[in-house]
Amino acid sequence: MATAIERFDERARRRFESLGRTVVYVGELRRHPVYTRFLHWMVALFFFLALFSGFGIYLPWLFRWFTPIFGGGPLARALHPWFGIFCVFFFGLQMLNWLKPMMWTPADTNWMRNLRGIVSGKEKLEPPDTGFFNAGQKLQFWEIVIGCVVFLITGIILWAGARTFGSTLVAISYVLHDVSAIVMLGGIFVHIYLSTIGEPGTFQAMTRGAVSEPWAWTFHPAWYREVTGRDPRESYEKAREETERAVTQNPSESKLRSK
Q1: I need a surface site. Which of 86, 151, 164, 225 has the fewest CB within 10 A?
Q2: End-to-end CA distance of the chain, in Å?
Q3: What is the pLDDT of residues 142-188, one digit of tens each?
Q4: Would you list the DSSP string of 114-177?
Q5: Which tens digits make up the pLDDT trace of 109-140?
Q6: Is 30 helix (H, G, I), strand (E, B) or coil?
Q7: Residue 12 and residue 172: Cα distance in Å, rounded?
Q8: CA nearest 57: which of 181, 217, 192?
Q9: d(CA 195, CA 40)
Q10: CA gap 14, 33 in Å, rounded
């Protein structure tokens, strides 16, 4: 029986699908619905607003040029906690949305064992049991969950100040708040790299909501098998053979396309 959270998510998904749409062309698979994409970009928006306003507050000697964007130092200080609250709020909804597929499985342990081959490019396809999310994505997800909890707790302490929580707790919160921000920012840089240069074709999953079949069988073979009923390795080999045949039959045209 569906839980209240699942019913809430389903209702939200249906409502957002009526406001937007996800176009899937031939040779593509539906990856993320409108609701998921909306939450993703809201989290990204408020995270960077909180980050930039926070830089201007905590390191004014280095990032004072950020504060005019928010109307000056006092206004940036006033807006910063609200940016943080909205970031945590939208990520909380995303956490409920993704909680089940983000649970750790034996497939993720296998993915970690093959990490060297995946990163080096030696393995053309990720492990065959890699599902909708791989272990790296799950680790980042839970890192953000922990980061948001730290942000929320320390942010409330810093917002209320020493009169409420005492100077010692405020000092500790400053350190934890900043460390959490640095860790999360590092993860975001990795995320941006993988979604653009590292894994071409990933970015459109969060813009259009669809991905190509080659992307699916390369990075998420088990998910590809689940939604298509086809073997990802066979699909890969067939595509590779067709490409080699086309190059052999039309070498001059292939050279022109590669230029």
Answers
A1: 164
A2: 56
A3: 999 999 999 999 999 999 998 899 999 999 999 999 899 899 999 99
A4: THHHHHHT--SS--TT--SS-HHHHHHHHHHHHHHHHHHHHHHHHHH-HHHH-HHHHHHHHHHH
A5: 999 998 888 887 777 789 999 999 999 999 99
A6: strand
A7: 38
A8: 181
A9: 13
A10: 9
**Selection from 152, 147, 154 nearest residue 181 by Cα:** 147
The pair of three-digit structure tokens given for residue 179, joined into one six-digit string: 């460390």
Every domain of the chain and the residues it spans: 4-228
Q: Which secondary structure element, helix H or strand E, spans residue 58, and what is its range? A: helix 34-58
- Which pair of tokens denotes residue 163? 């009169």
Distance CA 157, CA 150 (A): 11
Q: What whole-number distance in Å separates Cα of residue 202 and Cα of residue 192? A: 10
Residue type, 163: R
Given a contact cutoff of 8 angstroms between Cβ atoms, the answer to whether 88 and 151 are in contact is yes
Tokens of 46: 């408020």
The predicted structure's pLDDT at residue 159: 92
Distance in angstroms (rounded) separating the CA atoms of residues 92 and 145:
8
Element (H, E) at 11: helix 4-19
CATH fold for the domain made of 4-228:
Fumarate Reductase Cytochrome B subunit (1.20.950)
